[in-house]
Design goal:
Blueprint: H1 5-34, H2 47-68, H3 73-99, H4 103-127, H5 129-155
Helix pairs in contact: 1-2, 1-3, 2-5, 3-4, 4-5
Length: 156
Amino acid sequence: MKIRWKPLLISLAIPLSVGALSAFLTKDGMKKFAMLRQPPLSPPMWVFPVVWTILFVMMGLASYLVYISDGRKGEKRSALWVYGIQLLVNFGWPIFFFNLNWWLFAFFWLILLWVMILGVTVQFYRIRHGAGLLMIPYLAWVAFAGYLNFGIYLLN
């Protein structure tokens, strides 16, 4: 398979830009977060940007694989639209959680995000199996984030 560099770079840049902008907008909230009582299994703070960067790269690769696939145009367009919408939902969560401290609302927002990721994962898998598989760690991490989010709501 020949790499199509422009679509690949755009596919990577979109989720990484969403993540970078979100991190920039919530950097002050992260300081407050570090002072909250944490649920069991909470990883050290440095883990979050590392994991999110890896997940954004995997999302970008998955969307690239869907974009260049031989799948039906309408099916690919639909999957990529849902993918884009879930990126916007993803962008909202840290603002609700870190900046506004709407922990319970953020938890329900994460449930919405998880359902959307599941839908994207299924759509991507139908178009290109590898693309769907690349989304599974994201799905798992958001489930774990839901546990942490709800734990912080209960403890604080």
